[in-house]
From TrEMBL:
Pathway: Sulfur metabolism; glutathione metabolism. Cleaved by autocatalysis into a large and a small subunit. Its EC number is 2.3.2.2, 3.4.19.13. This enzyme consists of two polypeptide chains, which are synthesized in precursor form from a single polypeptide. Signal peptide: none annotated. InterPro entries: GGT-like_enzyme, GGT_peptidase, GGT_ssub_C, Ntn_hydrolases_N. Pfam families: G_glu_transpept. The active site is at residue 375. This is Glutathione hydrolase proenzyme. The lineage of its organism: Bacteria, Pseudomonadati, Bacteroidota, Flavobacteriia, Flavobacteriales. It comes from the Bacteria. It catalyses: glutathione + H2O = L-cysteinylglycine + L-glutamate; an S-substituted glutathione + H2O = an S-substituted L-cysteinylglycine + L-glutamate; an N-terminal (5-L-glutamyl)-[peptide] + an alpha-amino acid = 5-L-glutamyl amino acid + an N-terminal L-alpha-aminoacyl-[peptide]. GO terms for biological process: glutathione biosynthetic process; glutathione catabolic process.
Length: 565
């Protein structure tokens, strides 16, 4: 009898706490109402960065000025996800020209590092940390490309708030403190140089916890050099020389010459129409078109008769993901080195052919035949109608473990995402951009801006984008609910790094997905698992053209904030 009482109590508590909040309006899983503003909106994964962006807007700056300022602040305040040692991608809706622009600010592999080197070292994959996976950091050049084309305030003004916080310090937020308490000791255990000097010695010899003050005077000095000397201060001056010398000392190949030769690329965003909405992504070397492929496949099903979070919903979603990711493995790569068949991959006929392979049970697939890692996401909108969807990352959280002396940041390890198998689209080559996981997104309707959004989280990102679009369009959620709704992902299958499909993989679900769904998926032959912290971090700004109001959202899985005025 006592056992039955305990079981009943546990069931009662599970039911109560799985409901999330007892909200008066909207979905019970939403963490708050949508944020509203008429003149501007900023949504980032850190409240102080959001406030910096908002201050720039209120002081007469535009969305691009605010985005750069907030991104610089995030490189300081959220070093576990981004920084100037990493890459950047952006989609901009320009309020003046009324059109979209895409920026690929990802860096290339070292010119003197060859595929033969890895073969002679008997390496089957590029290591995850150390000097070998370091590619050229593209973020700073991305800032200046954005600023030259759209910016209004001086770079010195834009970087000033981040410099001030780096010198005076700021309190660490809950999630970032948790990540830093795990990342920094990991890099120390590897024996990587400059970790203690960069992240601990400047803070009184102790790594701060949540609510304690964190400073980075080295990064402040680096930002000052960039503010005074422009992008060349980073790519052609003492900073580049320091990076090149340090990486050579650590057995790597990235040189000052590689940094000096770097340039970003303006690209045309690509789109598909999903039930009346145009969903926009950037073409490869990123994985954005995987979300478009998934949506093209899923558009063939009537979700008005399929409940959100049901077994049928997750089954169809997962099978569409598997199909798209097989193509991702075979075709996605730097388009300067490989002719990616983007048009064919996004065509109606190809989507129909791929959709026809989906059955009632979990399947395994191969790529179609066609002739031919942690992150931050943020978005800003201003009073003139300009909106920017920006994503920036070092990969694997803080990056490679390579912190050049006295610069205040860590270099990315994106080079790990090359394949070492000869003859593949994403096979390593000198001066090539690796396959990239970070992707910004945008939606338009009837030729007008509708939504600037993104979801960070490595391989999850195309799945997250697809879930957000479906939550809004198919299930009628508002933009806060769309981000707070329980998520799932699928792991397994082929990858652009050379892995091949061996089974149907695993669906991993958040706790908000009901057991009836999990049971139904098991009946369809799916493996089910769980994971921690892989479901991304969503920010979004929606433009209500009828009322001329911005709607902002920042989900609860991060420390972030959406704010407008």
């Amino acid at each position: 009898m006592q056992h039955l009482v305990k079981l009943t109590l546990c069931l009662f508590l599970f039911i109560q706490f799985s409901k999330a909040q007892d909200r008066i309006t909207g979905e019970s899983f939403a963490t708050r109402s949508v944020v509203l503003g008429q003149n501007g909106m900023v949504a980032t994964s850190h409240p102080l960065a959001t406030q910096i962006g908002l201050d720039i807007l209120k002081d007469g700056g535009n969305a691009i000025d605010a985005a750069i300022a907030a991104n610089a602040a995030l490189g300081l305040m959220e070093p576990t996800g981004c920084g100037i040692g990493g890459d950047l991608f952006a989609i901009v809706w320009d309020g003046k020209t009324k059109k979209l622009y895409g920026l690929n600010a990802s860096g290339r592999s070292p010119k003197k590092l060859t595929l033969d080197y890895f073969k002679k070292q008997n390496m089957e994959k590029i290591p995850s940390h150390g000097a070998l996976p370091v590619s050229v950091p593209g973020a700073v050049d991305g800032w200046f490309e954005l600023h030259t084309k759209f910016g209004s305030k001086p770079i010195s003004t834009i970087l000033a708030p981040a410099i001030d916080y780096a010198e005076k310090g700021f309190p660490l937020t809950e999630l970032i403190a948790w990540y830093m308490q795990r990342s920094i000791p990991f890099f120390q255990s590897k024996g990587f140089p400059n970790i203690e000097d960069t992240y601990i010695a400047q803070n009184g010899g102790k790594l701060p916890n949540e609510g304690e003050i964190y400073k980075n005077p080295y990064l402040a000095n680096t930002y000052k050099k960039i503010a005074e000397g422009g992008r060349d201060a980073f790519y052609k001056g003492d900073i580049a020389k320091t990076i090149g010398t340090f990486i050579k000392e650590q057995g790597g190949f990235l040189s000052a010459q590689d940094l000096a030769a770097h340039k970003s690329q303006w690209v045309e965003p690509v789109s598909i129409n999903y039930r009346g909405y145009n969903v926009w992504e950037l073409p490869p070397n990123g994985q954005g078109i995987a979300a478009l492929q998934m949506l093209k496949i899923l558009e063939g099903y009537d979700f008005s008769n399929i409940e959100f979070g049901s077994a049928e919903h997750l089954h169809l979603f997962t099978e569409a993901k598997k199909l798209a990711f097989e193509d991702r493995s075979k075709y996605y790569a730097d388009m300067d080195f490989f002719d990616v068949p983007v048009t064919e991959l996004l065509s109606d006929g190809y989507a129909k052919e791929r959709r026809s392979q989906i059955g009632k049970r979990a399947g395994t697939y191969s790529a179609g035949e066609i002739s031919a890692g942690e992150t931050i996401y943020m978005t800003v909108a201003d009073k003139d109608g300009t909106m920017i969807s920006l994503i920036q990352s070092n990969y694997r959280g803080m990056g490679s473990g390579m912190a050049p002396p006295k610069l205040g940041f860590m270099l990315q390890d994106r080079g790990e995402l090359f394949s070492l198998t000869p003859g593949q689209a994403n096979t390593y080559e000198p001066g090539k951009r690796p396959f990239h996981t970070i992707i910004p997104a945008f939606m338009t309707k009837d030729g007008k801006p509708f939504l600037s959004f993104g979801v960070m989280g490595g391989d999850f990102q195309p799945m997250g984008h697809t879930q957000i679009v479906m939550n809004l369009v198919d299930f009628g959620m508002n933009i806060q609910e769309a981000g707070d709704a329980p998520r799932w992902d699928h792991t397994g299958g082929a990858s652009p790094m050379g892995a091949t499909t061996v089974n149907s993989g695993t669906i991993r679900t958040e706790s908000g997905i009901p057991y009836t769904t999990i049971r139904g998926l098991m009946d369809k032959g799916h493996r089910i698992g769980t994971a921690r912290g892989i479901y991304g971090g969503y920010q979004a700004i929606l433009w209500d053209d009828e009322n001329k109001v911005y709607h902002g959202a920042s989900e609860s899985r991060k420390d972030g904030q959406a704010a407008g005025y």
